[in-house]
Amino acid sequence: MWQVDLMKKVSAKPVEFGYSCSPTIIAGVIYLPVGAPNSTMVAIKAADGSVLWQSGTEPISHVGAYPISRNGRPMIVGYLKNTLELYDRRTGQLLATFPLTAGYDEHSAWPIYREPILWISAPFRAGSQWFEITDDDPPLIVSRSQTELMSNDVCSSVLVDNNLFGFDLRDAQTKMHRPSRGQFRCLDFVSGKERWSNGPSSGIRRAETNTENQSSSNVIGHASVL
Fold it and tell me: Is a pLDDT exceeding 60 seen at residue 214?
């Protein structure tokens, strides 16, 4: 029906590991982070591919546009390379920015939102953080707490009731020749405290020196959670 080359249309910039953001489609509008000059986030009409709005100046990472609402106000969260940003879903107005960096700035795991709390996870031992989206006009992004637990890397967690389930990668990098080591955890979404975990913990470091002889049955692989 139509196609849009974002590299040409809005001068989208390449991302370190290649563009991998899934489109988010709501009520006939496609929302995409593209990281172009004056176009961190764009909204495209699904019917014909025309650009409805473009906003922001920050470079993106690998997380798609994440829709939330606060007291009925529809917004888009941009979990970007160096910042966490809020956009008005209807107009594209940049509402709030929170500086975000942990040394390694390629973010891939989706945030999780339960009004008014927004949770994000970073890669490679950087842990996770809780924020509050305030009811101000415009809203603010306020840091509430953080933990060294639940570094999702590329595989997003899921929330069921108040239970946050996810894979916590503890390797410094993902591994090609064996499962990336870590633990499958459950955290209390409200307090951030660990409910339980499975997988190697204290033995991870020792196992690094004996990789080839370790039974794969003792290692929980990095996986998506449904």
Answer: no
